[in-house]
Design brief:
- This is Spermidine/putrescine transport system permease protein.
- It comes from Actibacterium naphthalenivorans.
- Belongs to the binding-protein-dependent transport system permease family. CysTW subfamily.
- This protein is mainly alpha-helical and about 400 residues long.
- The protein contains 17 helices and no strands.
- About 0% of the residues have low confidence.
Length: about 400
């Protein structure tokens, strides 16, 4: 093998994985640094306090509940709509299938801003037409968000079902119909069990798509907040390591789900191959139990729970107080150095006069204009008072109103 090619491949792989996982690693490190700003260096103290800051953020937590509620609503609507679209495409002719597929897939290509604004305009018009309580319902942020997200997320579910239906043998349904089953029974007992994995995948994809959507949700949620919009608002007003703590939680949940799914897939593949009894894992009861997806999930949850418990017991207040005192000492030192430089500049300039005396030693950049320059001179004579200070010639002087002597 060419040495240059090996070096290039290794360098490319290193750069690729650094680009892919580098930000995640940095966020994990910054989540445990006591610095007020997310950074790796300089390292201050190991702390788990940013997780508490994240959990006690009422705006983010209320947004999380709103996102979960909206996500469940999107699943309830988008999965059946996507399944209906996939079944309709599988039953049509090639020309009609292409036309309908284009119509159903177009919402994915429309910008989210356009979908959000059009959703508000459309349902707002319906609400104004119906009037009464219906108008308030159609102006509800949760309803508008679910309606706006379903318009394009249902297409994701449809694509999942189309991929699954391409592997379905339609003769099974035809055989059930020939044996006397109704179309509903054939659907429930044959097609629906076959689509069960696709239903789970479509539900998970729609939940993720709903949870992370921002462009459409920021318009349709109106005065409310979802987790994504609250997070974006927090970033605009200033970030802190609590967002890195959120990334750690998301990464942990993803790893637990991925490892559990991998254990399930390997076990299912081994059982379907018929070689389970010949496997050393299935021959050992302990290994067989440990490799079960449920046991893997329970073990990972126990590890995560143990780490959370240990983190909650960690106290970094002493270390943080020491770091704060060091920062104050550095600040005092800088202030003293600044005073020393100012005193040295004054001595070097030969300043001997007081600020009130003016001259070259006056530190004021205005030449002493505001240090007594406006005070009246003692030698200047006082101006004589006018004989009649009134601008009306003494017409309103009480003496002028006295009666004339007889």
């Amino acid at each position: 093998m060419n040495p240059r090619g090996s070096v290039f491949s290794a360098a490319y792989a290193l750069a690729f994985f650094t680009f892919l996982f580098g930000p995640l690693i940095i966020m994990v490190i910054t989540a445990f640094n006591s610095s007020r700003f997310p950074r790796v260096t300089p390292w201050e103290c190991f702390t788990t306090g940013w997780f508490n800051v994240l959990i006690t953020n009422d705006r983010l937590m209320s947004g999380l509940l709103s996102s979960l509620f909206i996500g469940i609503g999107v699943i309830v609507v988008a999965v059946p709509v996507g399944l209906a679209g996939a079944l309709a495409l599988s039953e049509l002719s090639a020309r009609l299938r292409a036309t309908l597929y284009t119509v159903l897939i177009v919402p994915i290509l429309i910008p989210g801003v356009v979908l959000g604004i059009s959703t508000i305009v459309f349902w707002g018009q319906i609400g104004r037409t119906l009037g009464g309580p219906a108008q308030a319902f159609f102006y509800n942020g949760y309803f508008l968000t679910i309606a706006g997200q379903v318009t394009f997320i249902s297409a994701y579910a449809m694509l999942v079902f189309i991929a699954r239906l391409q592997r379905f043998d339609a003769t099974q349904t035809e055989a059930a119909l020939d044996l006397g089953a109704s179309p509903g029974q054939a659907f429930r007992k044959i097609l629906l069990p076959f689509l069960a994995p696709a239903i789970g995948s479509a539900a998970f994809i729609t939940l993720l798509a709903s949870f992370e959507n921002y462009n459409t949700t920021v318009f349709t949620i109106l005065s409310g907040n979802t987790f994504t919009t609250a997070l974006a608002s927090k970033v605009r007003h200033g970030t802190d390591p609590s967002l890195s703590a959120l990334a750690v939680i998301i990464i942990s949940i993803t790893l637990i789900g991925a490892l559990t799914h991998e254990a399930y897939i390997r076990r299912k593949t081994l059982l379907d191959s018929g070689k389970a009894e010949q496997s050393a894992i299935f021959g050992n009861p302990v290994l067989r139990l440990l490799t079960h997806p449920g046991a893997v999930l329970a073990l990972l949850l126990c590890i995560a729970g143990g780490l959370v418990w240990l983190g909650s017991k960690h106290d970094s207040s002493v270390c943080e107080a020491g770091i704060l005192e060091e920062k104050r000492a550095i600040q005092r030192q800088l202030q003293e150095e600044q005073r020393s430089r100012i005193d040295a500049q004054k001595k070097a300039g030969g300043q001997t006069q007081t600020p009130a005396e003016g001259g070259a030693g006056n530190p004021s950049p205005f030449g002493g204009a505001f240090t007594g320059g406006l005070a009246p001179e003692s030698a200047a004579p006082e101006p004589a008072a006018p004989s009649n200070p009134s601008p009306f010639g003494g017409a309103f002087n009480p003496g002028t109103l006295a009666p004339a002597p007889e």
